[in-house]
Design brief:
The chain is of the alpha+beta class. Helix content is about 50%, strand content about 10%. The chain has three domains: about 40-160, no CATH class; about 170-290, no CATH class; about 300-415. The strands form three sheets. A five-stranded antiparallel beta sheet has the order 3-4-5-6-7. Helix 6 (about 95-110) runs parallel beside helix 8.
């Protein structure tokens, strides 16, 4: 309340009121509410260290609660050590553990210290799988998705090779700010058939262009692109595996590794009594089949040409169904199929060393084996006893040709090699 007296006292009371008003206005926080773009509000609510340079709201809250906001800006490592002491001392609430994960990643981004990246991954794992039922975050807790992505990105960055581009996958002990992390990886985990997986690139750092959508199944793990090398350098494997494949390798603080290079099928990781899904980069896998992430390009023109050759072969075979000719004879004598074989031989050099080469080989073998069985049928046909068997060979070979064309073409549409 403003003091005042008789008017005869002069202007002093008025100036006192004004001074008090100005003082109160200066001390008041500039709090206001206004209408804003919903998209901007959503971005502000869901921001994290993964989407910008600032940590999320929940982590800001923990720093404010501890009174460490200013100290974190000046001495982040001291604050991280203090937070770790809180956790070890029993204050392992979800909010504290999540803040430790995000702050460790934030500091690692600025210092490029792999130890803090790995520490972020360990904290994120502890937040997601606390080991105590009362500490398990609710499925609708927005921090769950951030923590899963922190785990994936933290282990990717923490396991960078010296070139700063590839990921190094090997057993070993890695230092942490508060100890060490041991990773155990069996050598056979990086073997696929007759090949060894090498030169791992994180899929999260690969840009995909030319596809309408980038399909990605959320989960845990580090989706990687890998080059393949023959286990026996003296011979080239006859397995139709492309020079690059995509899979997922997931490392947990337990030192366990899971490899899943399969393009389809469920993939889960058993953790704490539940099965956590493994992250899958389906669109990146598909795009890599045409343009390898390391620059090993497969010409889109070769892929289109292979589609054309399948169409020519299939058209010739289909003419045997709608005409009086048998499928196999229409396939072997029709001009579309003969043109396709000529293209097979003329362009197979352009496909050599790529996954598309398996389709060239598939079509060529289909043509010549069909011709071989037709010769067998002709030999049976010259004998009266062999006539029924000759027609059986012709019919079965026709069905076999249609099956081969369908199977090969479907594999090509999926962007994968076809195996015998």
């Amino acid at each position: 309340m403003c003091p005042h007296g008789p008017i005869a006292a002069g202007p002093r009371p008025t100036w006192t009121c004004l001074a008090a008003f100005v003082l109160l206005a200066a001390c008041a926080a500039p709090v206001r509410v206004r209408h804003a773009d919903p998209e901007w509000v959503q971005r502000d609510l869901t921001r994290s260290v993964l989407t910008g340079s600032e940590v999320s709201g929940p982590t800001h809250y923990e720093l404010h609660r501890w009174g460490l906001e200013e100290q974190y800006r000046e001495r982040p490592e001291d604050v991280l050590a203090e937070v770790h002491r809180h956790i070890v001392g029993g204050d392992d609430s979800p909010g504290v553990v999540f803040a430790a994960a995000e702050l460790s990643f934030h500091h690692a981004e600025r210092t490029k210290n792999p130890a803090h990246f790995l520490a972020s991954g360990v904290y994120a794992w502890a937040f997601l799988f606390p080991g105590k039922a009362e500490r398990v975050p609710h499925r609708f807790d927005p921090r769950v998705r951030i923590a899963a992505d922190l785990y994936n990105r933290a282990f990717t960055r923490g396991l960078y090779a010296p070139d700063g581009r590839h990921v190094s996958l090997a057993s070993g002990v890695h230092p942490l700010p508060f100890g060490a992390l041991e990773i155990a990886l069996a050598p056979e985990a990086l073997v696929w058939g007759e090949r060894r997986l090498v030169d791992f690139l994180p899929a999260a750092e690969l840009e995909v262009k030319g596809l309408a959508q980038r399909y990605r199944r959320a989960g845990l793990g580090v989706p990687l692109a890998a080059a393949t090398r023959p286990r026996d350098a003296s011979k080239e494997p006859d397995d139709f595996i492309g020079p690059r494949i995509f899979g997922c390798v997931s490392h947990g603080p337990s030192g366990r590794a899971v490899r899943n290079p399969r393009p389809r099928g469920p993939a889960t990781l058993p953790v704490g009594g539940v099965r956590a899904p493994v992250v899958r980069e389906g669109a990146t896998m598909r795009a890599s089949s045409i343009d390898g992430p390391n620059g090993g390009r497969v010409s889109e023109g070769i892929v289109r040409l292979t589609h054309v050759m399948y169409a020519l072969h299939t058209f010739s075979a289909a003419m045997g169904i709608v005409s009086s000719a048998a499928v196999v004879t229409a396939f072997l004598t029709g001009w579309p199929s003969i043109l396709a074989v000529i293209l097979n031989y003329a362009k197979r050099g352009d496909a050599r060393g790529t996954w598309v080469a398996s389709h060239f080989r598939w079509q060529i073998r289909t043509f010549w084996f069909a011709l071989l069985w037709l010769v067998v049928a002709a030999l049976l046909l010259v004998t009266i006893v062999g006539i029924p068997f000759a027609w059986l060979v012709v019919v079965v070979t026709g069905v076999w040709v249609l099956y081969r064309m369908a199977r090969g073409w479907l594999a090509l549409m999926d962007g994968r090699p076809v195996a015998e």
